[in-house]
């Protein structure tokens, strides 16, 4: 008998037993075995249960059949179902056979993976959770969750990151070298030697988590083929358990996927990964392979099972509705457009804290109660306080994580910039934010097993009501609303102090029942013009500087990932330089003059060829296979150059290149990938990018004549 405290590193199913790995407080990786019986549920017509149970139990692959009371769908009462436990893992074949038995209405809990069944119904502790485990030898006896919410640092999982170099030859990816970016180790030479060296290094470093770019599509298929051809054993894990490719489980070692939504792929990002893994009730390998809809489905399924529901194969509901109702309800969020070409002073951005999740909780909006717990009825559903066993399902999914995000945001204000604690806190906040935002986004999606479009529409409707109420309150208190976008509202009043803006936020919060706070306090703020209609503003685009000196921008060049670094840095520096003034009058005189000087200097540096290669690199994502493009785009040309060097260029990947000659007749000569870059670049092209970035800034604050846009360039206007 033994007892250890630690964190759940991984879990997977081997046949009819489950394996749980725990990283102990002493740093040991502990492997424990547990019982597991694959199962699904069968709903029978009344009076047919006994006969169907007998037919199913006659199958030699069935371990046992027993009756359970479960709720088949929202709004239904509990009904008797047959729980079918099997000896093997081939549930779908047995379930499809069961469906053909007369009297069988439906099959439930079939969509769950085996590890989900084990985690949801037996272990009942999320992977990465801190636990206390009792065991006898290697047999797990009991697991108790321990509270670790107060800590910001993630569990002490060690991480090793590798960068393999692979070349496409003879229809497959050949392994040329592997470099460990964590410690600098590198192996090169023949493929078999590289593979053996990689396995040896993996065993000596013994990491808990392994990060390899494009693992599932290239690296693993390559080493699997190589292992078979060269007779090199696959030594990925800490023991002989088989590798679980779909979840990256390698016998006590987790090979992470490529989905890092809201958190980074490094040691700090483990904190965000922990939040995503715990929310999804999934292993870390699954959490980095599943898109958000799958993660939300997993958590929703766990909540349903906890409330006595059975998980259906598909329960998406979209009833036929009058066209007028669709037009009236399906409107999305609300936006108040700003006046472009003006410089605003002393602006407060008030942000509803997690507005959509807060609305869901406040009003009881859920799949089973789309109009809320106190709303009106409609053709698509009726109001309902929940499932008869507590709060509505969406509320159960959201509540804990909304509370946690708001608590972490309050804690972040007390943490010093640049500290590990601050970074861990930000990674956790960002990961949870992505989860909460996506829950709203998929609430009415047909890809959501439980989706109901009325839920999505109702959340938007109540969001619009809250924004209109916020504007009404601001107007009544003498503030001017200059811009609003879905869940944030930008207000200004001459001479208003930060405390007066805070009082306004408090009044809005008390009247709407939603938490709202000051996100940023801008000293200066401006909105770019719409390129094709200078009299209109470009939505979701603005830039400014706060009273703390922070440059904040959205939608302009300095925030675009496909812009060269030299342009992004220039525009940020230009905004900082122009806005480093006392008031708007000084900005439009002294600030603009300093901005002109900065632009001239940047253009001279471009003409002199001074920017380094890294500052000139443009990044674009391949939308399709390079051979499928009908037009010779820059990213296609870069991809073809990569392929010519034996490197990869697949749809969905980013390619890097430098504009060498934008007007060259041969499209392949217009760009150069970094490996082929010799130092020559298209100076006129990069000069135009700088000029356009400056134009956006100057015209947005009213320092340029839009009417002369077609006649004179910005450089000419500057004299």
TrEMBL record:
Keywords: DNA-binding, DNA-directed DNA polymerase, Nucleotidyltransferase, Transferase. InterPro entries: DNA-dir_DNA_pol_B_multi_dom, DNA/RNA_pol_sf, DNA_pol_B_thumb, DNA_pol_palm_dom_sf, DNA_pol_type-B. GO terms for biological process: DNA-templated DNA replication. Coiled coil: none annotated. Its EC number is 2.7.7.7. It is an enzyme of class 2 (transferase). One of its GO terms (molecular function) is nucleotide binding. The keyword Nucleotidyltransferase applies. It catalyses: DNA(n) + a 2'-deoxyribonucleoside 5'-triphosphate = DNA(n+1) + diphosphate. It holds the Pfam family DNA_pol_B. Residues 331-633 form the DNA-directed DNA polymerase family B multifunctional domain. This is DNA-directed DNA polymerase. It comes from Methanosuratincola subterraneus.
């Amino acid at each position: 008998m033994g007892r250890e405290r630690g964190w759940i590193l991984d879990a997977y199913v081997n046949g009819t037993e489950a394996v749980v790995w725990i990283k102990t407080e002493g740093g040991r990786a502990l492997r424990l075995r547990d019982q597991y019986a694959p199962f699904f549920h069968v709903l029978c017509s009344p009076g047919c249960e006994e006969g169907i149970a007998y037919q199913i139990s006659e199958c030699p692959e069935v371990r046992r059949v027993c009756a359970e009371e479960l709720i088949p769908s929202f709004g239904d009462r509990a009904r008797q179902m047959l729980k079918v436990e099997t000896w093997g893992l081939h549930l779908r074949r047995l379930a499809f056979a069961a469906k053909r038995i007369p009297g069988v209405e439906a099959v439930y809990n079939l969509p769950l993976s085996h590890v989900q069944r084990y985690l949801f119904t037996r272990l009942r502790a999320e992977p990465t959770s801190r636990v206390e485990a009792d065991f006898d030898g290697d047999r797990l006896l009991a697991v108790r969750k321990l509270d670790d919410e107060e800590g910001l640092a993630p569990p002490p999982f060690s991480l090793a990151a590798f960068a393999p170099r692979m070349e496409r030859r003879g229809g497959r990816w050949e392994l040329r070298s592997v470099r460990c970016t964590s410690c600098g180790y590198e192996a090169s030479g023949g493929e078999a030697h590289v593979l053996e060296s990689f396995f040896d290094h993996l065993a000596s470093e013994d990491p808990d988590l392994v990060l390899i770019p494009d693992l599932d599509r290239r690296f693993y298929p390559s080493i699997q083929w190589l292992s078979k051809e060269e007779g090199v054993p696959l030594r990925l894990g800490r023991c002989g358990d088989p590798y679980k490719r779909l979840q990256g489980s390698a016998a006590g070692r987790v090979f992470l996927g490529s989905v890092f939504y809201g958190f980074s792929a490094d040691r700090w990002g483990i904190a965000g990964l922990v939040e995503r893994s715990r929310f999804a009730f999934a292993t870390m390998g699954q959490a980095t392979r599943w898109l958000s809809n799958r993660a939300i489905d997993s958590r929703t399924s766990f909540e349903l099972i906890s409330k006595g529901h059975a998980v259906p194969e598909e329960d998406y509901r979209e009833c036929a509705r009058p066209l007028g109702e669709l037009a009236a309800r399906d409107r999305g969020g609300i936006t108040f457009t700003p006046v472009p070409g003006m410089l605003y002073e002393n602006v407060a951005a008030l942000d509803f804290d997690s507005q959509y999740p807060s609305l869901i909780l406040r009003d009881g909006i859920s799949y089973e109660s789309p109009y809320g717990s106190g709303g009106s009825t409609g053709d698509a559903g009726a109001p309902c306080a929940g499932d008869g066993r507590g709060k509505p399902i969406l509320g159960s999914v959201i509540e804990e994580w909304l509370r946690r995000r708001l608590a972490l945001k309050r804690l972040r204000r007390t943490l010093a910039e640049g500290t590990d604690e601050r970074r861990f806190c930000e990674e956790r906040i960002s990961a949870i934010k992505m989860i909460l935002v996506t829950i709203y986004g998929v609430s009415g999606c047909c890809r959501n097993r439980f989706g109901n479009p009325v839920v999505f529409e109702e959340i938007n409707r109540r969001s619009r009501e809250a924004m209109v109420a916020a504007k009404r309150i601001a107007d009544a208190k003498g503030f001017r609303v200059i811009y609003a976008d879905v869940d944030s509202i930008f207000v200004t009043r001459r001479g208003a102090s930060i405390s007066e803006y805070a009082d306004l936020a408090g009044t809005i919060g008390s009247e709407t029942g939603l938490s709202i706070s000051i996100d940023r306090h801008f000293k200066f703020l401006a909105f770019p013009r719409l390129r094709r209609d200078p009299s209109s503003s470009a939505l979701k685009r603005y830039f400014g500087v706060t009273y703390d000196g922070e440059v904040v921008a959205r939608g302009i060049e300095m925030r675009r990932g496909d812009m060269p670094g030299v342009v992004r840095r220039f525009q940020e520096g230009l905004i900082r330089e122009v806005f480093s003034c006392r008031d708007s009058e000084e900005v439009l005189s002294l600030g603009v003059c300093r901005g002109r000087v900065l632009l001239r200097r940047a253009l001279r540096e471009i003409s002199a060829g001074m920017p380094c290669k890294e500052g000139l690199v443009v990044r674009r994502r391949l939308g399709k296979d390079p051979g499928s493009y009908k037009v010779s785009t820059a990213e296609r040309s870069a991809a073809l150059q990569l392929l010519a060097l034996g490197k990869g260029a697949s749809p969905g990947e980013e390619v890097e290149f430098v504009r060498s000659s934008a007007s060259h007749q041969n499209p392949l000569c217009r760009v150069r990938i970094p490996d082929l870059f010799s130092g020559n670049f298209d100076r006129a092209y990069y000069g135009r990018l700088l000029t356009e970035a400056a134009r956006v800034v100057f015209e947005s604050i009213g320092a340029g004549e839009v009417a002369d846009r077609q006649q004179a360039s910005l450089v000419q206007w500057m004299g």
